[in-house]
Design brief:
It is a single chain. By secondary structure, the chain is an alpha/beta fold. The protein folds into two domains: about 1-50 and about 350-390, Urease, subunit C, domain 1 (Roll), CATH 2.30.40.10; about 50-340, TIM Barrel, CATH 3.20.20. It contains twelve helices and 17 strands. It has helices at about 75-90, 95-105, 125-135, 160-170, 185-200, 215-230, 250-260, 280-285, 310-320, 325-335, 335-340, 365-370; strands spanning about 1-5, 15-20, 20-25, 40, 45-50, 50-55, 110-120, 145-150, 175-180, 205-210, 235-240, 265-270, 290, 360, 375-380, 385-390, 390. It has an eight-stranded parallel β-sheet with strand order 6-7-8-9-10-11-12-13. The longest helix has 17 residues, at about 215-230. It starts with a strand and ends with a strand. The protein binds zinc ion (ZN). The site of zinc ion (ZN) has 5 residues, from loops.
């Protein structure tokens, strides 16, 4: 197959020859091709690598179900308890729901995802079982990492730690965690338990840290210390990290130094409805890998979300007060090349010899793709078009 007249991020025009699922060649000149090759004119389409959503919750979405009438308090604990108590009676089947959200993500160009999956003593491992089945179903086209996520607390609800062990034995890839001080009310004990699980099962860590200002800084300091003490540099991520959005320089600067030293990745979702999120330039300039994700999509936590990572990149850019093209180009990296580093994906991106896995978006350049997040898209995986114009073709 030959794709002709594609626009690159550098503004050049190229043709791509796909053979046996791989990019056989990329050329600025017209390719000489055998008469039988299929030709697709991609004039006006921008070539981008396939996208990553590095923070998702596949087990939570109510996509395609009845509207969830959200009348919950603004308190995080209210939302946690509501979800734990009502998810089964509301009819959330995690295999079906994870499949829906994965297809929606694929339809918009996301082919790599890290999803957290709730593990708690009310629902046990049911949620994980369903998401694991969905992972298996789409494994040829969708790279999915799963974090066992003790959303209701790891230590505060006895029995959860043991369930986390079972989840890791069942196939969860990552040890998750949540607000060791605010939720577990035992920051030192909770961080210690998370690292104990990670060391026992030899898995990376990804902790939700919503705690803000001094409290968040204290917990983040503990995570940095434990990362260094256990030799887990490069294997720990902190999601949200709202404390890095603090205006207090004396609080943020030492944290950035510590995070860089410990090789910890920061994952941001740039929530428009949250006051302080990490300033992504500052984080990156400190030598820290920064990635992006959608977080909740149409679930009991948030009525919002389209599953489109380009839209999310726009939110992150806006939340960082970006206007310049070079800043928008930088924001794109959070869900492409920076995330590929986090996932250790080799052969990522549309280059000769790599799998023919990429996205074509109707836009003149990266900035326009983020600003307009157009519906005109073609998603290729191993040489096959698997989605077009927000429709999954599988
Ligand atoms: Zn989350």
């Amino acid at each position: 197959m030959i794709l002709q007249n594609i626009t690159t991020a550098k503004g050049t025009n190229i043709n791509i020859h796909i053979r046996n699922g791989k990019i056989a060649s990329i050329s600025e000149n017209l390719i000489e091709f055998p008469p039988k090759e299929e030709i697709l004119d991609a004039s006006g389409y921008l070539l981008l690598p396939a996208f990553f959503d590095t923070h998702a919750h596949l087990d939570k979405t109510v996509l395609g179900m009845d509207w969830f009438y959200n009348d919950l308090g603004s308190n995080r604990i209210d939302r946690i308890e509501n979800e734990r108590k009502n998810r089964t009676s509301f009819g959330i089947d995690t295999f079906r729901q994870a499949s829906r959200l994965m297809e929606l993500s694929i339809s918009k160009g996301t082919l790599y995802m890290r999803s957290h999956v709730d593990i708690d003593t009310d629902n046990g491992l049911k949620g994980l079982e369903g998401v694991l089945q969905a992972k298996e179903k789409y494994k040829d086209i969708f790279h999915l990492e799963l974090a066992a996520f003790p959303q209701s607390g790891l230590l505060i609800r006895p029995g959860t730690y043991e369930l986390m062990e079972k989840a890791l034995e069942m196939g969860a890839d990552i040890v998750g965690g949540i607000d060791p001080a605010e939720i577990d009310r035992d920051p030192k004990g909770s961080v210690h338990a998370i690292f104990q699980l990670a060391e026992k099962y030899n898995r990376p860590i990804d902790i939700h840290l919503h705690e803000a200002e001094e409290l968040g800084a204290f917990t983040m300091g503990l995570i940095i210390e434990h990362t260094l003490a256990s030799g887990m540099q490069g294997k720990v991520s902190i999601s949200h990290a709202f404390c890095l959005g603090s205006q207090k320089k004396e609080l943020v600067v030492p944290l950035l130094e510590g995070l860089a030293h410990a090789g910890i990745t920061i994952i941001t979702c740039g929530q428009p409805n949250t006051t302080s999120v990490p300033r992504i330039r500052e984080v990156s300039d400190a030598g820290i890998n920064i990635c992006g994700g959608n977080d909740d999509i149409r679930d009991m936590w948030s009525p919002y979300g389209s599953g489109d990572i380009l839209e999310r990149i726009q939110f992150i850019a806006m939340k960082n007060y970006f206007r310049k093209d070079k800043d928008l180009e930088f924001t794109m990296k959070l869900c492409t090349e920076n995330a590929a580093k986090l996932f250790n994906i080799e052969k990522y991106g549309p280059y000769t010899g790599n799998p023919a896995t990429f996205v074509l978006v109707k836009a003149r350049n990266i900035s326009e793709s983020i600003v307009t997040y157009p519906k005109e898209r073609m998603v290729f995986c191993n040489g096959k078009m698997i989605a077009k114009d927000w429709a999954y073709l599988g």
